[in-house]
Amino acid sequence: MWLFCSLISCFLTGGVAVLPAPQNLTVLSTNMKHLLMWNPVAQPMETVFYSVEYQGEFESLYMSHVWIPSSQCSPTSGLACDITDDVIATVPYNFRVRATLGSRTSAWSTLEHPFNRNSTVLTAPRMEVTEHGLHLVIKLEDLGPQFEFRVVYWRREPGTMEHIKVVKNGDIPVHLETMEPGAVYCVKAQALVKLIGRHSAFSQTQCVEMPEESLPLALALFAFVGFLLILMVVLLSIWKTGQLLRYSCCPAVVLPDTLKITSSSQELITCSKEDVDACAVAVLASEHLFGVWISDWRKGLMD
Ligand SMILES: *[C@@H]1O[C@H](CO)[C@@H](O)[C@H](O)[C@H]1NC(C)=O
Ligand SMILES: *[C@@H]1O[C@H](CO)[C@@H](O)[C@H](O)[C@H]1NC(C)=O
Q1: Among 114, 219, 292, 300, which has the highest number of CB atoms less than 10 A from its own CB?
Q2: Is residue 199 in contact with ligand 2, taking CB distance under 6 Å?
């Protein structure tokens, strides 16, 4: 009679109204990212929370009563838990999940087979192959610090050898080779994970064709150098003309009498009084013009 009563009272307070345990625990693991998933415990109009705990190999073997709460899901209202940070060694891990609703708690549901991260699915890495000038450049998908990539590339021509380069990081463009104009180069890559001693399949081969001689660039360079040369010649001749005018018509120093050219027949250029005045103006004017021209040219460059 007492037993019956206590059972009834227990039932009324809700301690016995059993919450079903989550079913169908599975681990989805791709590229070393691990996700534990389970089926929902349906409770209409209520939010059920789930707690996840795990045991590594050491706890399983020597301390089977010790379960460690998962870093991400203690608790969670979702139906999946990112357990990547909990799995820190390549050994079997046990996981268990239970549901909680208010003060009611379900039994634990345990993963059928322990999970080892060496079973992760490795996908062929995404890659971008481009040419910059004559440089063959590859950029690989960023899959995290545990990943390296083996890149195989070759010139598409009979009898050429394959080259292999190991790239440490994804997400950073890496120079593979300086190429010959007009040639076609092909690249494929696979992901390597040393921690678990496995690698993915190779990505699909991508080929890029180098442009023929980069003629337009060479021409542009040639034209620019030519322009600079002509400019220098013009500037030099303007300067030289100015100098000539100044020294022949407008002497800056008073020469000793012995050095003075007295005979008009010996004069290189005949300079009358008016000529000297005029040439002084001309020299000044040419220098002024030159200054204006230079400043215009600078403005033009800056625009
Ligand atoms: C178990 O979970 C997997 C992955 O979430 C799902 O594909 C499968 O349908 C589920 N099985 C049942 C019986 O619910
Ligand atoms: C993972 O490791 C375990 C134990 O070291 C081994 O028995 C199993 O074959 C490995 N699995 C894979 C896919 O490498």
Answers
A1: 114
A2: no
